[in-house]
Each structure stands twice: as C-alpha cells, then as structure tokens.
Description:
A hairpin with a 2-residue loop joins β17 and β18 (269-277). The radius of gyration is 20 Å and the shape is elongated. It is built from 3 helices and 18 strands. A 9-stranded antiparallel sheet has the order 4-1-2-3-16-15-14-8-12. With 278 residues, the chain is mainly beta. The two termini are 31 Å apart. Helix content is 9%, strand content 45%. α2 (134-144) runs antiparallel to α3.
Amino acid sequence: MPTALIEECDITLGTSGIRVNTMDPAHVALCRIELAKSMFEEYACDKDTKIRLAINSKGTYGNGSSLVGQFPNKIKASLMDIKLRGETEFEKSRLELSFLGNLRKNAKIPLLEASEEEPPYPKIRFNANVKIVLADLLEVFKDMEKHGDNFRLTATREEFKIETVTELTEQVYPFEKGSDVMLELDVREPSKATFNLKYMLDILKQLKTAFEIVTLEWSTNLPLKISGENIQGATVEYFLAPRIEDHDEPIERKPEPKPETELIQEEDKIVCTNIVTN
C-alpha cells in the first residue's frame, strides 16, 4: 500500500499482475509496487488497464470514497475480492470491493481520471547498501521522532549508523557488521545523506505490514531507496529525496532556511532539484 502521504495514485491492472507507480504531491517520495498474479487465488485480466484511486482521506472525494476508507474496522477479512467491470458508464466508473470473513462487506468506490504518464524509474548508482531487520529499524525511528525532524544515514565499509544531531542534543544509533539486526553491509564508497523523518516513519510502517527485512540503498546527497521483497511475488520500493546540507553541521538548524530536494520527472529519469524551505 502507498504511504499515507500519497493521496491518490494510478494503478495498472495488467495481464501479469498489478503495478503501482506514483509520487506524493510534494514530489519528495516515490512509491513503486508490483504484485505478481501468482500471489492471487484467482486473477483474470485480458488487457492492461490503468485506473486512478483516492488512497486516503486527503484524496479528491474524502475518506468515505477512498481505498483506505473501505477497509472494515471490525470485520476480520480473510479474503478481498476486487472487480472492475460494468455495462453502463456509471458502473464502469466504479471499482467493486468485497471483504469476506466473519462478516461480509461490499463497496463501490469512484475511479478518478488516470494520468497519461507515470513517473519513470530512477536511475541512481548507489554506493551504500544495508539489509536490516525492519522491526528493529522501525523502533529506532520511533525513538528518534522525539528528538528531531530529520535524520542522517552514514555508512563506511565497517559501520552503519543513523543519527539526528541538533545544536543541543545528539542521538546516534550504530549497527555492527554481522549483527543479528544488520544482516548485510556493502559499501563501495563512504556515504552520508539526510532525509525527512516523518516520511521515513510512514514508509516503514507501511512496509511492516508485509515484510520482515528491508534494504536501504543510498549515496551522498542522493535519494534513498527503501525496498522489500517476499517469496510470494510482491515487490515494494520507495525513493525518498534527500536534504542537501553541510554534513559537518547539525541536522537541525533553525530558524535558518535549509535547502531540500524534490524528485522531479525529467524525460526518462528522476532528478533531485534544490528548493528552499523555512
């Protein structure tokens, strides 16, 4: 599922499975999901079809008509049935959802106008690669949330650490190579980059619903790739734009404006463009 920061997204229902490729409104995060048809108990699609849905309450029609708003709170759903069909124009403009469990729920939600183009896949050379246990990583960021708005990833060939440094405090979370938490560390070149903590927390919370291990990939002052893959055929990838700053200075420096980046679509690639925020 895309993060709560993404309000609406295009979904491609293809002959080989389902694909999502979308960005948040601020162009700070990109989400890419692939679900192979082998994951589904039944899957039938005779041609590629792109639809657009409101994901959360900030979408076009509000939470009552969003995808997240349809998931039942009390019904223990063991099966979800999704159908796109209809004979009339009204029926063709709705997505049918059925939740089957201790109780049943049927719903229809409106389809939005799909985008003609989708964000291209970022082409980035990553110098640092860390495979880590997701539950432990999430606890680090939950604790870090009390101390700052941004975090820094630093990797050398022997060490990986996450930190947030302000003018008054410093929190550092080191991970040892070969530990039970950090399963792999592969570094071509020492790499440092700073990112938004709120975005990262939201991404990790979404990934935790499906994955136990995630991979982090980044290079100095380039986007962070957070990905998970399971044996059932699901692949989920997020790209998070960095904050461009002097890594010898505290991460939090207020009230000075700080350069930040957004992921901008440019022909066949996504590039980082500096913007200034207060």
